[in-house]
Specification:
This protein has 162 residues and is of the alpha/beta class. It has a single domain, classed as Glutaredoxin (3-Layer(aba) Sandwich). It contains 6 helices and 7 strands, in the order αββαβαβαβαββα. It has a 7-stranded mixed sheet with strand order 2-1-5-4-3-6-7. Strand 3, helix 3 and strand 4 form a beta-alpha-beta unit. Helix 3 runs parallel beside helix 6. The longest helix has 21 residues. About 9% of the residues have low confidence.
Length: 162
């Protein structure tokens, strides 16, 4: 029985990996001023983009965005990468977004996935969750944060910016 379960598990993992999403779905998110913008508008531009899903209540998310903020200007200069931070806060916590980013001085494009439609469509169950896209196609995904993870992320960005 255990061997059958092992085979089924391996098959499912291979199937999930084989069917992993390669593109960002065309779902609308909100800018901080309340305007809607479709993800296709954001991802249609050529080049490398980092999309970071985060929330105001997520300490590892904030730590990751803080760490990237310290080196972001260098990253942009060297690779022309753009980071888009998509807040997944709901109606109860979204009022904390503007004060937090103003206090942090983050220079990222900040968007809001109010109903978590984009998050669900990408099957994101844990944040922080980072996606790197190149020319509109997903080339890297990572969940969680530990100090130094931003260095690994930058290696992925440099590899894809060539």
């Amino acid at each position: 029985m255990k061997s059958i379960m092992s085979i089924v598990t391996i098959f499912l993992l291979c199937t999930i990996q084989a069917n992993a999403q390669k593109e960002i779905p065309n779902i609308s998110v909100k800018e901080l001023n309340g305007n809607s913008i479709s993800m296709s508008e954001i991802t249609k531009e050529k080049g490398v983009k980092i999309i970071s899903f985060w929330a105001t209540w997520c300490v590892p998310c904030i730590n990751e965005l803080d760490a990237i903020s310290e080196v972001y200007d260098d990253w942009k200069d060297e690779t022309s990468v753009e980071l888009i931070a998509i807040a997944t806060d709901d109606a109860r916590t979204k009022k904390r977004i503007k004060p937090l980013i103003n206090g942090k001085g983050w220079e990222y494009k900040i968007l809001l996935d109010e109903n978590q439609d984009l998050q669900r469509s990408l099957n994101i169950t844990t944040i922080p969750h980072v996606i790197v896209i190149k020319d509109g196609e997903i080339v890297f995904r990572h969940t969680g944060y530990f100090p130094g993870a931003e260095d690994q992320l930058y290696e992925v960005v440099k590899k894809n910016a060539k």
